[in-house]
Design goal:
This protein has 155 residues and is mostly helical. It is built from six helices and no strands. The protein has one domain.
């Protein structure tokens, strides 16, 4: 149940995309109803999900005999959360963050694809976490560009 994120991983079509979208929506709802995202809690949740995801993925791989079965989508949750780390929560960041993470997760630029070969559940999580790092860097650059553009217009 954990690795498939409450069975989202079993929805036909694009389970990774569904898990990323559900993560983005839940992230927004937490922000909307609490009024803020606490960076220390965000980072703690990311670490907990990542470690638990490695353990669950390793067990599922051992049990099924398959490497990275498509129903394991907890890695998308971790990668999507990493994409939003230390950024303001707004429609632009949520939309671009979702698109950036999914793009890097599917495209797998160097060295993301190489990380998939790591064993014991680590490869399942590591490639998505690096895709999340790439997405996070893109969002930080976009946010810096926006600050620069709006600060030069104000002058």
């Amino acid at each position: 149940m954990f690795a498939s994120v409450f069975y989202i991983g079993f929805i036909p079509g694009a389970p990774g995309t569904y898990a990323s979208l559900a993560t983005t929506l839940l992230f927004f709802l937490i922000y909307h109803f609490s009024g803020r995202i606490v960076p220390a809690l965000h980072l703690s949740a990311l670490c907990l999900i990542s470690v638990a995801g490695i353990l669950a993925s390793a067990e599922i791989e051992r049990f099924t005999g398959q490497e990275d079965p498509s129903f394991i989508v907890i890695d998308e949750v971790a990668g999507q959360l990493l994409t939003f780390l230390f950024l303001p929560v707004n429609l632009l960041n949520l939309s671009l963050g979702f698109l950036a993470f999914r793009t890097f997760d599917m495209w797998k630029p160097f060295p993301i694809r190489k990380l998939e070969s790591l064993g014991c559940g680590v490869g399942v999580m590591a490639d998505d976490l690096l895709a999340g790092v790439y997405g996070n860097v893109v969002l930080h650059l976009v946010n810096l560009l926006m600050v620069f553009l709006f600060s030069t217009r104000a002058k």
